Fold these 2 entries.
Entry 1:
Amino acid sequence: MLSSLIAYFGDAYQQVFSFNDGPPLHNTLTITYVSNPTLFQGRHLHVDVETRRNIPWEQPSWIHGVIKTYDDTWGANGKNCLVLESLKVEMFFNILLNCIN
């Protein structure tokens, strides 16, 4: 059953988003981060989420508007998001397979 679900979502993401590098694991990664944050490395950055315009998902919003500058503090005018950039992949899959078993 698990392989069927992974295959289904992998095919759907490939067809809809041209995501060809394997099935999506974002939910699994989220739970793993909550329970094992030391498996991840990231940095604090400023992230804006566009909710008012109909922008294709692959286009950055700065193409359509004003480029803003932000300071180096934490908050609305500075860094507001932890962006995860790397993962201890082997350890992640060990945890995932242990949960499946």
Entry 2:
Amino acid sequence: MHRLVQEAARTWLRSEGKEEHWKPVFVDRLYDAFPRDGLYEYWAECEVLFPHVKSALTMRLAQRQASIVWAAVLFRAAEYALQRRSPSDGMRMAELSQLERGRALGSQHQATLRSAALTVRANWSLGNYKAAQLNGEDLLRIMRASLGETHFYTLDATNDLALVYTSQGKWREAEQLHCLLLRRFERVSGKTHPNTLLSKNNLAVLYAYQGKHDVAAELHREILYARQATLGADHPHTISNMHNLAVSYWADERHDEAEALFRSALEKRRKVLGEEHLNTLTSLDSLAGVLRFRADLAEAETMARAALSSREKILGGRHPDVLTSKANLALILHDAGQKTEAYALNHE
């Protein structure tokens, strides 16, 4: 339904005194329809329903049960937004879900804690690393005490905090958590379970940040083969491993192999995720760097400008990924003799 039609219907219901009656019906129908997981396999369904959730973010419900159901819908939509659409939408929905659950269930209820964990993930996605760290550490202490060390929600929060540490350059803390998770998932779920492979991927990314590219490449190859066999070559997780393996190959000066993987990952991400998905933009920026190395500066500049423009639109001007794009474009412009613009980018 078009947004203007929705607003007209809402106005009519309010004038007839029927809005409070129909709110729980609307929420129940969204709850029944919106997939429980924001996984790739359900993105098409989520895409259709997401605008309906977004249009109702200011809605307030008088009935406690309806608020609990609405919080669950917000949680699902936030998960989808963080993976597919916009970190800012994901943050707003996660915060509203936490607020609704806190009011209806209490701040220590496991559903409320799960929403709190999603706000940590949203802060990380937005580059708010300090807030993500502080909230993530507090939340993990609470979850360990109330749910236990091995509860799935606790393990999920552990992974999120490890990712925050990685982004902050706190290698020791990140490695400790990632290794703990990997051991637990391997023991409980087996070596090829999606959770095990995700944990191993995050550890490999950490090793790459630390400069241990040979170790990272070995892990990424292992994960890539497993995901190709279980998820297929075009699944977003498989494509991410392809990109990550390219990063390690490039650092090891295996340039031709790396470029082939970078190009393949970009092509697949454009097809599967779309031109402006954040992972697609990461691939675009990476390939721009490859082309700079190859001295193909015109194409490198085109790609780098496109990545920067889209990242700024989605993430804002001060996100770490945006700053990385600016630095990459500045290097390309400098090599192309456009030193005035390069200097301006580096000093914004």
